[in-house]
Amino acid sequence: MADKDTAVMHLEDLPGHGASAADLEFLSNFPPEAKKKVLRKIFIIEGLVTVFMAVLCYLLLLDSPSLSPNWLSQDEIRYLEVRQLVSNNHSGHHKGFNKKIIFSVLTDWKIYLLILGNWSNAVPNYALKFSMPEIIKSMGYKSATAQLMTIPPYTVGAISAYGFSVFADRFSWRMPFIVIPQCSLIASFGILFSKAASIESNIALCYFAICLACFGMYPILPGVNAWNVCNIVNPHKRAVAIGYLICVGNAGGIIGSYIYKSDEKPRYPTGYGTSLAFAAAGLVAALSLEFCLWSANKGKARLTLSEIEELYTEEQLRDMEEKSPLFKYTL
């Protein structure tokens, strides 16, 4: 999957992030019991829409060319199946539950570095989307103005996510287009951590830092997901790895939901400090993964094709998947 395609899918989250913050700000004026009733209805409606879309995906989303006879000819189906076999050396259709694939994903060291990279987005992202109106109100703005002031940061994030993904696809290199946004995140939370105590005296700088945070947050997740997909040969393992990375990565939102404490405003040392720490950890993880994959490719390059053919059979090379000396990791 291209980085650009992944970015477009994640851009759909941005309006929801703004709406979530707006909902919470709007409900802050409600009595506690009324707030619970409204929130309950909102969650039920959102849940029903999600379940409905899941059912539609199950019924309409096709997982192999052989299940697409209504809009592909038999020659096109055969062509796609042959291309899939040639590119992956694995059948595109899988029957039954395979524990070996689950185990191979759980023991793959690469995915845990990618999860740390994912958390460098998830923790600051979930935290900031709920607290941004309050942060902007701390600058001295009223509630309505504070809501309007959340629009530019999310716009910057949308443009940034798409722009970085285009260049990542063009250069076929993931690491720089994850690391640069992570550096932006570190800089933005460093500014907020040091200046938030006197935020009303540093309105322009702190608002710039919020925009810079959104600029850095949103390109990370598409880049991490695309990097994961590029380095897994077996389509069945790839499918499991995508789900595992997204599931565990989004669990970072649990942390992010509790780090901005109301009794710490306007400085929010726990919120800004934790976000800064996860951004730094993600940066180290991305650089570590790049170095490890580069070293692995360098080691594989030492073997010539004739030496590989002498050491391994075709079946052994296929079973080795991405560990095969013929496979080169995407950096």
TrEMBL record:
It comes from the Eukaryota. Keywords: Membrane, Transmembrane, Transmembrane helix, Transport. GO terms for cellular component: membrane. It is found in: Membrane. GO terms for molecular function: transmembrane transporter activity. Pfam families: MFS_1 (PF07690). It is a multi-pass membrane protein. Its main location: membrane. Gene3D superfamilies: MFS general substrate transporter like domains. The chain crosses the membrane at residues 42-61, 148-167, 173-192, 204-221, 241-260, 272-296. InterPro entries: MFS (IPR011701), MFS_trans_sf (IPR036259). This is MFS transporter. The lineage of its organism: Eukaryota, Fungi, Dikarya, Ascomycota, Pezizomycotina.
